[in-house]
Amino acid sequence: MIYKNYRRLLIFILSGLLGLLSSLTMPAWSNFSNLHANAGSPLELARQGEQRYNGGELEAAARLWEAAAEAYEKIGDRDGMTKSLINKSQALQDLGLYPKACNSLLQAFAIPNPNCSQTQIEQLQKNLAQKGDSLTLTQAIGLHSLGDVLRRQGLLQKSQEILQLSLSSIGESAEKSAVLVSLGNTERILGNQIRDRWDYDVVTDIIDRKSVIDGLRPYNQAINYYIEATKVASAPPIPKIQAQLNHFQLLLEMKRWWSEQTQRRIASWTRFSESKLIQRAKDFLSGLELQLSQDAQALQNQILPNLATLAPSRAAIYAEINFADSLMQSGQINQVEPLLENALQQSRTLQSRRTETYVLGYLGKLYDKQGQLNRATKLTQQALMLAQEQDISGDAREITYLWQSQLGSLLRKQGDPKGAIAAYTAAFNILQSLRSDLNANNQDVQFDFLQEVKPVYLELADLLLKSNLTDKELNSLIVSSSKINREKSETKNSQKRLELARQVIESLQLAELDNFFQDPCSETANVALQIDNIDANAAVIYPIVLPERLEVILSVPGKPLQQVVVPISEQKVNETLDRLYDNLDNFSINNSARNIVSTSNPNPQELKENLQTLLPIFGEVYNWLIKPFDTELDPKQIKNLVFVLNGRLQRVPIAALYDGQNYLIEKYSVALVPSLQLLAPQKLERKQLKVLAAGVSEQIKVQGEFFAALVNVPKELDQIKQTFPASEKLLNQEFTVKTIQKQLKSNFPVIHLATHGLFSSNPQKNFVITGDGQSISINELSALLKEPGTTIELLVLSACETATGDERAVLGLAGMAVRSGARSTLATLWPVGDASTAQFMGQFYQDLKKPGAKQADALRKAQLSLLESLKLNPPFEELQNLPPHPYYWAPYVLVGNWQ
C-alpha cells in the first residue's frame, strides 16, 4: 500500500547480509542432553526446544521454550525461566520477529508488560545498575541477545550500552568473543552514521590533507572489537571467524566508499585544472587503498583455512555466505561457487530453510554476475518461494524483498519488462509495509536503507514510464485505496501508467524524509493528491533521474499528466550539476562564486567570468525541466511552479534557471515540496497576521566558535514590526529558549529567526543560535515550536544556511516544517550579505501583507526587487549589461506550502 495516514519508519538491514553479520549465539542453556529429565518436565521441554532449534525448526523451538519458561515459573525456578526466555528470544530473532524477541528478553529480566520501548530499556539499565557487579553469566548472555535486537531495531546507543554492560559482566568466558563481535557490529553502523553525515567539505578536507587516519577513524572502535574477538582463547571458532569476516567486509566497504568520494573530487578539480589538489587526492587514495588492501589480504588468508575447519551448522553456513558475498564485491568471483555450493549442501542436510533461501539467492546473484541469466533467475525464484513460505510462521520480508528486487533486475535484463514490473512492485509493496509496521528510533540504518531501496523505487518508476501494460495489468498494480481504484477505471491507459510512476516517486520522497527525520507521526493523505485539488494556478514538476535518461512528469490543473524524455544519462546529469555547484558554491574551488564574493576585495573580472560560465549551465538545466513544457506553462494561467526534487537537483537554486534572456523567477514563482502527500497547502490568513521576530545582531561565541555580528538584524526586525504592528520583537539577550516558549503561547502564525544557523544531512549538526549564546538543535527547535494550540504557517530562517555540497540538506528545511508543525519554511542555500537580507526581508513582508498574496508570490517579488536593484546598481562596473549574478539574489528557497 502506497499511502497510509500515519507512517512508521522502516528499520531495515544494512545490506543483504546484515542479518548474517550478527553473532549467532547458541542457546543460553545448551547442555540439556547431558541432564536427566522426566517427560513433560520443564527440563524436558527445554531440551526438546534445543533439539528443534539445532534442527532448524525455529518456530517449534520458540513454542517449546515458551512452554518451558511457563513450567519453570510455576515451580518457582527463576533461573530456568530466564534461560528459556533468552533461548526463545534467539529463535524469534532467527525468525525475523525482533519486537517479539525484545519483549521475551525484557520478560526474562522481569520488566512488567514488556513492549520494548526506550523507557523500558532505560528502566532495565537502572535496575541492573543497582545490582552492580552481581550479574550472572545467564544475565550477561541475555544482555548480549538484547543488544543484538536493539541494533536490528535501530537503537544503536542503547545497543552499545547494553552490549558493553554484557561485556563487563561476562568475564573471560567463552561467550566473550561473541559479545565483542556484536559490539563491533554496532560500532560499525555507528561509524556509517558518522561517515554518511560528513558534509562535503569535511570529506574534501580529509582528502586534501591526505589524512588516511581521519578517513578511517569512524571505524576504529569496530575494528578494535573485531580484532579483540579473535584473541579470546576460550572462544569457539564461530565468533572468531565472524569477527574476521565482518572485519574483511568492512575493509572492502571503506575502500569502495573512499574511492567514489575521491574520484568525484578529482573530477571537479580536473575541470578547473587544480593539478596540486588532484595529485593530493591521488596520493590519499593510493595510500588508503594500499593499507586497506594489505589488511584485507591478510584477513582473507586467515579466513579460508578457518572456514574449512567449521563443523556443519547454520552459523557456519552464514559465515560461508558472508565470505562469498565479500569475494563477489571484491571481484574474486571464481572462488565463490564452491563456497555457496557447500553452504547449500549443508543447509539441506540440516534442513534449514532460512539459510537455504539465502544460499539460493546469492547463487542467483553470482550467476547474474557471470551472465548466466536463466540459471540465476531459476535460483532466485527458488529462493523467493522459500522466503515466502517462511513468512507464514515468521517475518521474512527483509529476505523476500531482496529476492523480489533481484528477480526484477534479472527479468528486465532478459527482456521481460512486465515480469520485472510485477517483481519490483512486490518488492516495493514489501518495503512500504515494513515502513508502516516497524518502529524506528535511530537514523544510522535509515541511511543505508535508503541506499538499498532507492533502486527499487527508481527501477519500478523507470519500467512504468517505458511500459505498454494493458488496463488490466495496470489496475492490478499497487492498489492503495478504493478511491484510487475508481479513478483508475475512468482514466486512460497512459495516464494510469504515469500516475503510478508519480505515486512511486512520491513514495520515494516520503521514504527519504522519513529516513532523514524518523518521524513516525507525520500525517499524510490517504489518497493520491492532485494539483487540481490544491492550486488552480500551480504546476508540479517531477524530474526523475534514471541511468540512461532523464524523465520529467508535469502535473497541470485540469489536464492529463504529461511526460518528457530527455536523452541524457545520469552520469551526464550529475556531471552538469557538479559543474554548477563547483562554480557557484564549492569552497574548495578558488574561482567559485562563494570564494570570489567572500574575499575582502573581489576581482570583478573573475566574477564576470564566473557568471558567464554559470549562465549556460543554468540554461542547460532550464532546457531539461522547463523548455519541453513551454506551451503548457502559459504564464496567464500558471503562476507558480512547484518542484519535487531528489538527489543533486536539491541543491540547485531553481529560481535562477535561465532561458537565454530571463531567469525563471522573472516568469513564475518557485517553491519546493518534498511530497504533495505531506502538506495541505492553504492561503495564509492576513487579517490578524503577526510575527514573532527574534534575532542576534552581536558577535557571539558558542562552544568555542565565534559567529560574526549581523549588524542589520535590528533593522530587519524593526521592518517586520512596522509592517505587522501586532508582532513581537526579541533582540539579542531577549532571544532565549524561555522567551520564545513564553511568546509562542500567544499563537504567532509566522516565526522569523534572524540568527546564525546551519542545515545539513546530519540532524545533529542542524542548529540555530540564540541571544544568550546557546545552540538549539533542530529537534529541540521543532519540539519548541510545536506548542499545543499553535499553528505555525511560516518559519523564516533569514541568516541560516545549508551545508555546502550537501545534497540532502534541503531535507533539513522540509523536515523542519514537518517536525515543527509549520506548513512552510523560508531559508537560504548559502550565506547572504547582512544588508541584502534586510532589504529582501523588508520587501517580502510588505508583499506578504497584501490581500490575496501567496507566500511564493511574496518571495518572487522580493527576489525581483533584488534583481532590479542589482540591474540598476551592479556591484561592479564589469557586470553592467549582464544578468545579475545569482549568488546575490537566488539562494532563497521556500519549502512546503507556497500559498
Account of the 3D structure:
The structure is a single chain. The protein is α/β, with parallel strands linked by helices. Helix content is 56%, strand content 8%. It is built from 34 helices and 17 strands. The strands form four sheets. Strands 9-6-10-14-16-17 form a six-stranded mixed sheet, sandwiched between helices. Strands 3-2-1-4-5 form a five-stranded mixed sheet. A hairpin with a 4-residue loop joins strand 1 and strand 2. Helix 2 packs antiparallel against helix 3, helix 17 runs antiparallel to helix 18 (373-390) and helix 19 packs antiparallel against helix 20 (417-437). The radius of gyration is 29 Å and the shape is globular. It starts with 17 loop residues before the first helix and ends with a strand. The model is unreliable at 1-26, 31-35, 437-448, 479-490 and 518-528 (pLDDT under 50).
Q: How is this fold's topology laid out?
A:
Blueprint (H helix, E strand, L loop, with lengths): L17 H4 L20 H13 L3 H17 L3 H17 L3 H11 L9 H14 L5 H16 L3 H15 L5 H21 L3 H9 L3 H5 L3 H10 L7 H35 L3 H34 L5 H16 L6 H15 L2 H17 L3 H18 L6 H17 L3 H21 L6 H23 L4 H5 L6 H8 L3 H25 L20 E8 L4 E6 L6 E5 L3 H15 L8 H6 L5 H22 L14 E4 L25 E4 L18 E5 L4 E3 L2 E3 L5 H11 L4 E4 L5 H8 L5 E5 L2 E3 L7 E3 L5 E3 H8 L8 E4 L2 E3 L6 H12 L3 E5 L5 H15 L6 H18 L13 H4 L2 E5 L3
Parallel strand pairs: 1-4, 4-5, 6-9, 6-10, 10-14, 11-15, 14-16
Antiparallel strand pairs: 1-2, 2-3, 7-8, 11-12, 12-13, 16-17
Helix pairs in contact: 2-3, 2-4, 3-4, 4-5, 4-7, 5-7, 7-8, 7-9, 8-9, 9-12, 9-13, 9-21, 12-13, 13-14, 13-15, 15-16, 15-17, 16-17, 17-18, 17-19, 18-19, 19-20, 20-21, 21-24, 24-31, 25-27, 28-32, 30-31, 32-33
